[in-house]
Amino acid sequence: xxxxxxxxxxxxxxxxxxxxxxxxxxxxxxxxxxxxxxxxxxxxxxxxxxxxxxxxxxxxxxxxxxxxxxxxxxxxxxxxxxxxxxxxxxxxxxxxxxxxxxxxxxxxxxxxxxxxxxxxxxxxxxxxxxxxxxxxxxxxxxxxxxxxxxxxxxxxxxxxxxxxxxxxxxxxxxxxxxxxxxxxxxxxxxxxxxxxxxxxxxxxxxxxxxxxxxxxxxxxxxxxxxxxxxxxxxxxxxxxxxxxxxxxxxxxxxxxxxxxxxxxxxxxxxxxxxxxxxxxxxxxxxxxxxxxxxxxxxxxxxxxxxxxxxxxxxxxxxxxxxxxxxxxxxxxxxxxxxxxxxxxxxxxxxxxxxxxxxxxxxxxxxxxxxxxxxxxxxxxxxxxxxxxxxxxxxxxxxxxxxxxxxxxxxxxxxxxxxxxxxxxxxxxxxxxxxxxxxxxxxxxxxxxxxxxxxxxxxxxxxxxxxxxxxxxxxxxxxxxxxxxxxxxxxxxxxxxxxxxxxxxxxxxxxxxxxxxxxxxxxxxxxxxxxxxxxxxxxxxxxxxxxxxxxxxxxxxxxxxxxxxxxxxxxxxxxxxxxxxxxxxxxxxxxxxxxxxxxxxxxxxxxxxxxxxxxxxxxxxxxxxxxxxxxxxxxxxxxxxxxxxxxxxxxxxxxxxxxxxxxxxxxxxxxxxxxxxxxxxxxxxxxxxxxxxxxxxxxxxxxxxxxxxxxxxxxxxxxxxxxxxxxxxxxxxxxxxxxxxxxxxxxxxxxxxxxxxxxxxxxxxxxxxxxxxxxxxxxxxxxxxxxxxxxxxxxxxxxxxxxxxxxxxxxxxxxxxxxxxxxxxxxxxxxxxxxxxxxxxxxxxxxxxxxxxxxxxxxxxxxxxxxxxxxxxxxxxxxxxxxxxxxxxxxxxxxxxxxxxxxxxxxxxxxxxxxxxxxxxxxxxxxxxxxxxxxxxxxxxxxxxxxxxxxxxxxxxxxxxxxxxxxxxxxxxxxxxxxxxxxxxxxxxxxxxxxxxxxxxxxxxxxxxxxxxxxxxxxxxxxxxxxxxxxxxxxxxxxx
Length: 1039
Prior knowledge:
Layout (H helix, E strand, L loop, with lengths): L2 H11 L24 E4 L1 H4 L27 E4 L8 E4 L7 E7 L2 E4 L1 H4 L8 E7 L8 E6 L11 E5 L5 E3 L12 E7 L8 E6 L26 H4 L4 E6 L2 E4 L1 H4 L9 E7 L8 E6 L6 E5 L5 E3 L1 H4 L3 E2 L5 E4 L8 E4 L7 H7 L5 H9 L5 E2 L3 E5 L5 E3 L1 H4 L7 E7 L8 E6 L8 H18 L5 H5 L7 E2 L1 E5 L5 E3 L1 H4 L4 E2 L1 E7 L8 E6 L5 E5 L1 H4 L3 E8 L11 E6 L2 E6 L3 E2 L3 E2 L4 E6 L3 E8 L4 E9 L2 E6 L5 E2 L12 E4 L32 E4 L8 E4 L8 E7 L2 E5 L2 H5 L5 E7 L8 E6 L12 E6 L5 E3 L10 E8 L8 E8 L11 E5 L5 E3 L1 H4 L8 E8 L8 E9 L2 E5 L4 E4 L8 E9 L8 E6 L13 E5 L5 E3 L1 H4 L8 E8 ...
Parallel strand pairs: 18-21, 33-41
Antiparallel strand pairs: 1-32, 2-3, 3-4, 4-5, 6-7, 7-8, 8-9, 10-11, 11-12, 12-13, 14-15, 15-16, 16-17, 19-20, 20-22, 22-23, 24-25, 25-27, 26-29, 27-28, 30-31, 31-32, 33-38, 34-35, 34-39, 36-37, 39-40, 40-42, 43-70, 44-45, 45-46, 46-47, 48-49, 49-50, 50-51, 52-53, 53-54, 54-55, 56-57, 57-58, ...
């Protein structure tokens, strides 16, 4: 959780690792007179008076045990089958407790008589599960801690049926499991009985690992590591007739010392009806996603499914947040919400460390909660920032469940750490002061005096209301969660059988929170409760899936009690239905793939489903391959664009992305006059550009060009084909750019002359040099003299981002040579700013094309062409400051004048958040009005746009808009004559760092094809990452 600052504290105090102690705190209730959705009940009324008191000892404290403040777990389940859910709480340094539900939120402490208090020094997670198949819930408790000589074997309390339990972990071979955080029981091999995944947290000091990537080496095999630190790593245990056998290694489960597991969740990720496993890992190790191979083995595949992960991943829950039938993932981390807290407790990784971890297969990890939205195609889109749930401070459990019964899963997060270990004031000032005093006096300070100087800042837990559109609103105040606390494990269940889910939260050095849900009295929302009766060896139906179909929505509930952080939920399903008065249909899929369906089910009722009554067999839900408008041509033999390793951040620490890697350039044209349009792809530094000949029918061939090889040292950032010397053949002009200190002389335009047979040679006369980071080349016969002139726009000065560069206007002498006439022809353009794109369009309908430019940190600008000069025209565009990145123009509303689309890459100062884009309607007099809401509302979701083109995709005579973006997919917006409407296509699956787009009928079949260029990964940030760096050649199949 705290790898960087923990390491700092260790060094400063000359001690080992970290965790804490505190003073007792009384249970706090809400002071508000207004009734909230949840009511915090007093322990005197409930009888739940457990106190997880954690106190530092001389030989066992935060400096001896890193997880000292991780807290305990909660399990809710009906242990005596009386219809009332009971509560079990684990204690770290105190006895565990079991509370029997007597009804009306009154509980009786039966811990001692039940024999479940335990004798281990440090309990962590707990799950209620029937392991001896008698229909009674047993209790499995994970234990950890590293007290010398202490036994941290796990405990299994077998339910005797008379409110007493007998510990039998050793008999089931479930005792010796390492330093356990939690466990999940499920049938991974589909043989009918319950197997187990034991989640362990490596006990080795993180600072001693040095980012070791020995993921495949099992913990017990590490050399030069003391036995007390080894443990056994994560374990997959197969149930063989009641004995659990370790099959971890043969099943493909990692068990390394770099595994710092804090959460485990089991679900069917890919719809093949086999359970998969997700493990959230703390510190630098990435999370694991184990996809079930259906043969007793798993494939770890997290990097192919996700784009980036949480760095200090804590608890995990998986459920469907948008009712599309797909399982989404929520992971908690420790990024504070308030800016003051961020500055006072956070220290972020440097870019070099980030790249080092990338190179060692630790994926892309950022300090933030992650909400992975399941795309239904074996990929996730990370949407935590978009959804508003990325920052919740030092968080532990994150649960996805319907808190208000409106039919949408909300998010609840526990929060707080006893003694703020990452407080920078303590790290930088108090710790140093302690060292100085010890040096001056020669006396060591007591551990407690050091720890007491660490701040104690309880934080409120978080409740987020689901808005039904993948966004969430903070509902702490309205729902009654404003009490600051040091909360860890949490579980939900309907404790009073009123049809809504109540909660129990385990706190450190505070009484537990028991929250009553008031949805039944404060809302008119309805519900359905479901009880499952499984087969003989899985009587509670663990692994079953219930799907409720109503009003074009799918409500999915899985019977998997182990969720969140160290906790276990009630087995009785309580599903919110909103205002629905009847359920259209319900289908249950049992672990053996048997299925049943019910129709027209009454709401506000309890339904008991029995596996013995199921007769149908459910087939898998693997996604179907539907014919799409756009099809990727896979066999193109296109080469990968590979950037060099220069880092801009070493010289400009405040820029939000690297400017030295702005390619690749793209240009399209028929260079050999065979009727097929060919294409050029610019190279990165020390990589020559590539010219591909279009052979027709989607086939291409690389054309060897020696002149390109000679110029491999240039970074190609823009390119254009046009006839420069008037011989009827397309020549090629390339703009070079970058941001590398000392390379300014290479940042210029180059001209290659076509010999008429497709061979390109460097022009004999060099073009005037610009020595700026060139972003765009825009050819046009500006002066109508029969030859093509060129506007060259620059984006930035080398290593001086923010200073506006100068630009060039190159006038053609008619023979393919050019002179710089910027001062005479384009003087006004010098102040165009940090240009990112430019186009020629006849804005004022005088028959001459005008120049439109867009820039970063500036406004779009129009320069009217009077045949002799480009003159800045005042327009309403002058008020539109932004990070503009692309401009395209077309007559969208068919009124005879040119309308303008401008796209933005980012919101100023918040790179990574999706910006707004504008569709500007020409009023006919050169002024523009914002028509985005009326004509192009769907463009709000177009992402961080880097390019756009107008093209008639569906051959209806109206030009449509295609956009590309960073960290996103290409998108098609069809023009129906009234609006631009987002069109779903297979492009929606192609996430990438798209940098260039062109459209042409490359295969001469009468419809338009599309060519996209994908750049490499360039900067750290909270974005979706690229699956690969391919160039995608797409052939449109229009019907």
